[in-house]
Structures are given as structure tokens and as C-alpha cells.
Amino acid sequence: MNPEVQDTYKTISTPSEEALFKEKGSKFFGYAFPVSSEIQVKEILEQLRTKHYSARHWCYAYQFGTEKVTFRTNDDGEPNNSAGMPIYGQIQSFKVTDVLIVVVRYFGGVKLGVGGLISAYRTAAQMALENSEIIEKIIRIHFIIHFEYKNMNKVMRMIRENQLEIVSQKMKTDCEIEISCRKKTSQTVFETFHSAFEIDIRIKE
């Protein structure tokens, strides 16, 4: 096991409870959602636009991934970098990923200025994350093992000894098993099977 490999990450378990921050008549509703794709982001934004149909702005930021991080911010008509980036700053501050934060604003008639907007969007995003249950997840690596049926006992023994999780298996003349393991043990697991006679192993793409 390689202790230097970071193989856990933080995310939120379920959508947060609605958070409300008020500033000079404007209302800022903050929401946090666990997400893993842009399709999910789009669906959630559509739902919130329907729910808050009379609001002025639906600003958001999201981040996916652990090894390769994807993120996006959107000011939705507010002055440049006054909404999306302060929201994204809270994602970074809480060190979470696979998360979307949306802040919906109802204009209260008084302009807040760029500084006031930054503070309000940051606070609503922070409140949404504080309303969320933050959990730690393990990064798992998936491998495909390919071998002839005669080597079944040997493969199963290796899986058991290395405490690996079987994800799926196809048993015919040739056998194929998908296994998963913690990222920090993946190099050892790969070498164990790679060095074994008549067994092929590859990372699942």
C-alpha cells in the first residue's frame, strides 16, 4: 500500500435544505446538489427556474472529478465574477467535488454594488453547504481480468487474498471478471495479476 496516494474525496450525500440570505430587500436562496454530469446540472437548473419563475438571477458553480477536475461558473446576468466565482470559492473552501451550488436571487429594489453581490452570493453558497451532509468517498480503480476457466481457482484465491470487490463476471470457456480496489492499492493489485501465469489484466476505461 502506498501511503502517499490520496484516494479519498469529499462530496455531499443528498441535496441540501434551502438556505435563505437577505440583503437590502434582495433575497438569495442557496442550494447544493450532488452531481456527476452536466445533464444533471441542466435538469436541476430547469427545476429551479420553474420553482422560482419570478426570480431575477439563477447563478451557479459546479465541479466534477478528482484526478481530472471539471468546473464551471455562471453569473447569469450579474456583473462579471460577482456571483459564479464567489459561489465556486465556497466549493473550494469546503474542499468538495461532484457538487453543484445554485443561488437564486430576487431583486429587492436596492442595488448592492459588486462588493455587496460578492458577499451575498458567497454567504448563500456557504449556507447551502453548511446545510449539507459532507461525506468522504473512496476513489476506486476498476480492472478487467481475463483468463481461461482452468485458472478459476487461482484467480478466485488471489481476489480473496487481496480483499478485492467483484463488480461483474462472465464465465464461459474464457472468463472475464471486473474487480475494483482502492486507488492506493491498485498498483500492487495490477502487479500481482500481471505477473501471474496465463492471466491478463487491464484497467477498465
From TrEMBL:
It comes from the Bacteria. One of its GO terms (biological process) is regulation of translational initiation. InterPro entries: Impact, Impact_N, Impact_N_sf, Ribosomal_Su5_D2-typ_SF. It holds the Pfam family Impact_N. Gene3D superfamilies: Impact, N-terminal domain. GO terms for cellular component: cytoplasm. Residues 24-129 form the Impact N-terminal domain. Belongs to the IMPACT family. This is YigZ family protein.
